[in-house]
Amino acid sequence: MSDPEQLLRDALQDRAERTSYDATPLADVESGAYRLRRRRRTVGAALTAAAAVVVVVVPLAVVAAQDPETVPAPAPTTTPSVPTPTTTPTTPAPSGGPPQIAYAEGDRIHEPGGRVFQLPRDLGVSGFVAYRGGYLVADARYFEGSVGLTRYDAGGRAVASWTSAGRPVSSADGLVTTWTSFAPPESGTTAPTLVHVASSTGDGPEVTQELDLIQPSVVGMVGVDVVIEGGFGAGGVWATDLVSAPRRIEVLDRATDVSDAQGLIAGSVDQDAIGRVVDAATGEVLWERQGVTVSAFSPDGRYAVATASQGGRREIVEARTGEVLAEVKASGEEHFPTLLELTWEDDGHLLGDLAFNCCAHLGRVDLDGNITPARPRGEIGGTGFVFAATS
């Protein structure tokens, strides 16, 4: 019988050999997106093949995330449906309808079909993705760059936990999920710093790679590469396929989002003074602008959100050129005066987390920058809304 570790190495090597990092010219964007989708299927195939021969042992809770056995999750308020991979729909959303993507408010995840997935109370949510019938949730227990990360099964029970930074992120098609784990220095424990990649829907192994970074966080996935932002120390932006050594994206100090569809990374340099959009394959700076942060690529990668460092002005821009399409008309509006966050609901609409009279509201933003109310409204003193993170 073949050595299981060798079989896993062969599967990962095969995945690496199928990956190309050649530049994608502007005229070939459509065919480039098709190649990236083919690469995603290659990742899924490699994970499935690896599942047949090896189980990769992954460290569970390290200090910041409590032991699931001592802190059981309460029973869901409704019987949770088995969530589908958290992908962003491309069909237009009705102006006044409920959100078409999952969102969290307090200790509840609201699914597009109307069901509510109950999480443990008082932990909060800073990020989440649908994962293997349940959810992978980053809580709000933030301490010096770290958060608790817990996997909940379909019944709302905590089955695994880690210490992490940032939030878990799924691939654009929802089939693969990635996150980081580490032992925080103040814990007094020892564990490797890892980046994890695993099938979102199956029971295959978690493929990991050890990182020489301090408290890194995942930004997203472009093709088979996981884009990572370093934490303390060396910092920087890195990309890895978990086979070769991580390579640094030299033209970025920080990263805010990625577009798998277009092969783009948004980020900044000079202590966030200059926002940039970079070609992930070549490292070429496609455009930059002083005094803005670029984030939130649309699902098709055509658009992004640019936020002014001073005053918080939000603009919808062309992702590859930076051309301004519209200003988001939020600040100063009677009903939605303060815009906290924007997340794409589909290729033509964003959902805005807006604050008014101590309440959190959801507003829907079109490509002209106009806001119409979406139905959910948070309670007084609520924590606002958090949306699932996809590449």
UniProtKB/TrEMBL annotation:
Keywords: Membrane, Transmembrane, Transmembrane helix. Residues 70-98 are annotated as: Disordered. The chain crosses the membrane at residues 43-65. Residues 78-90 have a biased composition (Low complexity). This is PQQ-like domain-containing protein. It comes from Nocardioides szechwanensis.
